[in-house]
Amino acid sequence: MKNPEIVNKLTRSINRVGMKIKKHSPEILVVTGVVGVVASTVMACKATTKLSGILEESKNNVEQIHNYIEKEGFSEEYTEEDSKKDLTIVYAHTALNLVKLYGPAVVTGAASIACILTSHKIMRSRNVALAVAYAASEKGFKEYRGRLIDRFGEKLDRELLYNIKAKEVEETVVDEETGEEKVVKKVIEVAAPGDASIYARFFDETCPNWDRDAEYNLMFLNQIQQAANNKLQAQGHLSLNEVYEMIGLDKSRAGAFAGWIYNPKNQVGDDYVSFGIHDVRNEQKRLFVNGHEKSVLLDFNCIGNYAQYI
Length: 310
Hints:
This protein is mainly alpha-helical. The chain is 62% helix and 11% strand. The chain contains nine helices and six strands, in the order αααααβββαβααβαβ. It has a two-stranded antiparallel ribbon with strand order 1-2. Strands 3-6 form a two-stranded antiparallel sheet. Strand 1 and strand 2 form a beta hairpin. Helix 3 packs antiparallel against helix 4 (80-152) and helix 4 crosses helix 5 (154-161).
């Protein structure tokens, strides 16, 4: 009973290792390729130190043949055809020595380049598969929202999408007739925390373009948003990673697929860029716009897999 259990454990361990290797194969291939390129360069440099000896030997052999011909001339024992054969042998022997000398470096270099190209091919195929899966997921979500709107209306869809909840607040107002101040209660809609999309990013002190001046941060983000819209209209398309870069945020894998399309004749999603700063339903963003907060959570109105519409 113990032996089968040991075999099963060993098999599972081997399979886990195999899966990890497969998962990280692009990184492994790139590292192997880079190391191989460096190694092939070192090998070629070492081989070059021996090159002069091979060339010198070849030169001496050729000179000996030519000197013999000049001194003795051709005869029945050593004809012109014989001299050509000897020169061919010398050249062939030199070429063989050069192949032996540089062959390992060339083979190592070629194998290294093949590793890097294979890594690129694997990553490209994975990105294509990811884009297809993302497009299918987005299509399913849109169809679900369509059915929800048909059955329950756009109001409920909006409340569920943005996690909007009713909140009772007190507000001081001035009576126009008496001029007296009084406190009244009213109900407003607010977006609850945790409603951000996967594209949302914090603009805070971790961002190099963030400033301690809240008014400056608002002005900066408004300018970048306008610049992004200008770029979108000029190019006809814009990726989320391009916008991240303009703001000073790190790029993301999702940002490579998500973006905007500007086509007045065939609108796809929102044909404008919005950072979601002026969302009146979000209390935190109202504080940011009013200058009471220095940082803000940016959420972008991009569409997933925008490249399929280009």
